[in-house]
Write a structure and sequence with these properties.
The structure holds 2 protein chains of 2 kinds. By secondary structure, chain A is mainly α. Helices cover about 70% and strands about 0% of the residues of chain A. The longest helix of chain B is centred in the N-terminal third of the chain and has 19 residues. Helices cover about 50% and strands about 0% of the residues of chain B. Classes of the chains: A mainly alpha, B mainly alpha.
């Protein structure tokens, strides 16, 4: 084996190892955070009025929060537009990426080819807007911390390397798929020898590790906000705080 | 007990997916997706260098430089277009 081949094998092993580490931290961290959300006491009815009167009503309210961000719409129309487009693009891109992890590839994912490529192209625009907003308004600048920037920078870097390997320095998808399928079936093969693809992959690993410990967890937390997920029935039936101490009354 | 069952189910599912994954499509490769082109045809100049062609052949087709049906003179759709397109999730070529 030549030196170059040896170094490449080492690098490949490192990249694969990092992939698994990232997946492990992501899944483990996600479960931990959600367990924490579930265990957090909710001693009071603090449902935000006008609240839904029934469980299906709560479902509808949360679905609305997840899909169209109505509260943000009332607060800031421009931010709402930027954020909504940002999330819609992200969703399309994620769905499209399932083709690297599934075989056979679902029809729907194949049909979405054109629209998700547009989403990829478009994605940096709302991302840049969200970034610019943090710097442009002194109030937002004041409450922005390093983690807010890290998230945006990671996402933008992932999107730009993704567009590079799709358009300008194209990576051979057959090799990419062999690599990703190898990862998910625990029979890893080396990644394609394509520096920008490897950068794309490592950035995604960084995002996965970052995810459970960052504000990206709003993706899970949105389902656990007591002001949004409680039923507005304070008067009936009686609300019993599950976290109260047992009291002897005899 | 329930947890044990669930774990077993997950493992079985994982084993099933692993068993279903075919080898990647390679010219004269192994497995059901191997790219097969009749021996009588030699690689045309458009295909050189091959690694460029592999990632960029759609440009020749989408630009209209070469018509899709001209590719099919040498390529059989099922054995050397769509087997590979199915693998990576690209729209199928209709002959």
């Amino acid at each position: 084996m030549t030196d170059a081949a040896m170094i490449w094998n080492l690098l490949a092993a490192l990249i694969i190892g990092l992939g698994y580490l990232a997946a492990f931290v992501f899944v483990g961290g996600l479960l931990l955070r959600i367990a924490l959300y579930i265990k957090t006491p909710v001693p009071l009815k603090i449902v935000q009025t006008p609240g839904p009167k029934s469980a299906p009503g709560v479902l509808a309210r949360i679905a609305g929060d997840v899909l169209i961000f109505p509260n943000l719409f009332q607060a800031d129309k421009l931010l709402w537009l930027g954020a909504w487009i940002f999330h819609a693009c992200l969703f399309l891109i994620l769905v499209r990426h399932t083709r690297y992890f599934l075989y056979p590839v679902p029809e729907l994912v194949i049909d979405w080819q054109t629209i998700s490529v547009y989403a990829g192209f478009f994605f940096p625009i709302p991302a840049l807007y969200l970034f610019w907003r943090r710097l442009a308004s002194s109030r937002v600048l004041y409450i922005s911390g390093l983690p807010d920037y890290i998230t945006l920078i990671l996402l933008t870097a992932i999107a730009s390397t993704g567009m590079l390997v799709h358009y300008f320095a194209r990576v051979y998808l057959v090799d990419v798929k062999a690599f990703t399928l190898g990862l998910v079936t625990f029979a890893p093969v080396p990644p394609p020898q394509h520096p920008i693809f490897i950068a794309h992959f490592l950035l995604v690993c960084a995002l996965l590790i970052w995810f459970p410990f960052s504000k990206l967890m709003h993706a899970g937390g949105i389902f656990f906000s007591p002001t949004r997920n409680q039923i507005d029935n304070v008067l009936y039936p009686r609300y019993v705080n599950k976290w109260n101490e047992e009291v002897r009354v005899d | 007990m329930n947890k044990f069952l669930l774990l077993m189910l997950l493992l079985a599912l994982a084993a099933l997916t692993i068993a279903c994954v075919p080898e990647k499509p390679v010219k004269d490769g192994h497995g059901e997706l191997a790219v097969v082109i009749d021996r009588e045809f030699t690689s045309p100049v458009t295909h050189s260098p091959l690694d460029w062609w592999q990632t960029r052949h759609f440009q020749a087709v989408n630009n209209g430089d070469i018509k899709e049906k001209d590719c099919l003179y040498c390529h059989k759709v099922e054995r050397s277009c769509n087997n590979c397109h199915g693998y990576v999730g690209v729209r199928k070529i209709v002959p």
